[in-house]
Structures are given as C-alpha cells and as structure tokens.
Write a structure and sequence with these properties.
The chain is α+β, with helices and mostly antiparallel strands and 164 residues long. The chain contains 3 helices and 8 strands. The protein is 23% helix and 36% strand. Helix 1 crosses helix 2.
Length: 164
C-alpha cells in the first residue's frame, strides 16, 4: 500500500473515533513493515487522547488495514500512539493542549525563549516568562518543544507515615 493510500485509509478511521491523524509512517523491519500511526485529540482532560481512546483507534485502524485492498500482502506490525511531549508544537491545537506546560522555543530569528504556556489563541500564544506575560505570534516560532519537568513533592503532598 502506497503512503497516500495508507493515509487515505487511516485518516477517516481516526476521525470516526473522534481523534486527529497527526502522522503515519511505514518502516521496514526485515520482511515485515511497521506501520506507525500517531494520533492527537483533546481527550477527556483536554491534554491529549487517553489510553482507552488510543486502544479503540488501534483496533479500528487494524480492521481497516486488514480490509483494505492491497497488492502488497507482506505482514505488518501496527503501532498507534499519541504525539507525546517530544514532538514539536506545530498547530494552535498543540499549544492549547499543552497549556500550563513549560516550552522551549527557537524563534525564526534564532533567539531562544523558555516559558510556560498560559494561553493559546488562533494566531499567537501567551507565555508566562518569569512571571510576565509574553505574546508571541506562531509565525515567529521556528521550533517549540515541551520540556519534561520533574518536580519534588511538597511536604504537604508527601505520603504520611503509618501510625505506630
């Protein structure tokens, strides 16, 4: 199955499950192919698809690929996943779904900026940079990636020790 045919087969299935097709790729692995489908969507908490949604999409895409008329009958392995935090933010919906997260931005002019996504509009994003709001048009962004943060538990959040 050609890439264009594959995308045409997968995209409506993903949409019928209430998600968006972010990417589809085919990679050779010996005699097999690995079909990687990356999906996105708001999910139950507004921050991306849940595991249950991804499982449902995986089953639906698997059925669609098995039923698709294809001259290429080589076996394949299907991998379905969400975008994850390592993928660049490229659309306003990506910014919106990551509200509250820390993001590292490389601007079109090569300068860098790090801030927390406070608000995401259709044409620009508002970042909290050291407590001050900074509005940045998406057109000024060359690359933006969410930063993984490891936070220490406050003492009030720490589990209490058992009573003795």
């Amino acid at each position: 199955m050609r890439y264009g045919d594959l995308r045409e087969t997968v995209e409506p299935v993903v949409a019928a499950c209430g998600l968006e097709l972010d990417d589809v790729a085919v990679v050779r692995a010996g005699n097999r192919r690995v079909v990687r489908v990356t999906v996105d969507g708001d999910g139950p908490d507004g921050h991306g698809p849940s595991l249950d949604e991804i499982a449902a999409v995986s089953a639906a895409v698997s059925r669609a690929l098995d039923e698709a008329d294809s001259a290429d009958e080589r076996p394949y392995v299907l991998e379905v996943s969400s975008r994850g935090v390592g993928r660049p933010l490229t659309r306003p919906a990506h910014w919106r779904r990551n509200r509250g997260r820390l993001v590292q931005i490389t601007r079109q002019d090569g300068s860098e900026l790090q801030g927390r996504i406070a608000e995401a509009a259709d044409a620009e994003v508002c970042l909290d940079v050291a407590g001050a709001p900074v509005w940045l048009p998406y057109a000024a962004v060359a690359k933006a990636v969410v930063q993984v943060e490891f936070a220490r538990l406050d003492e009030s959040d720490a589990p209490s020790s058992p009573a003795t």
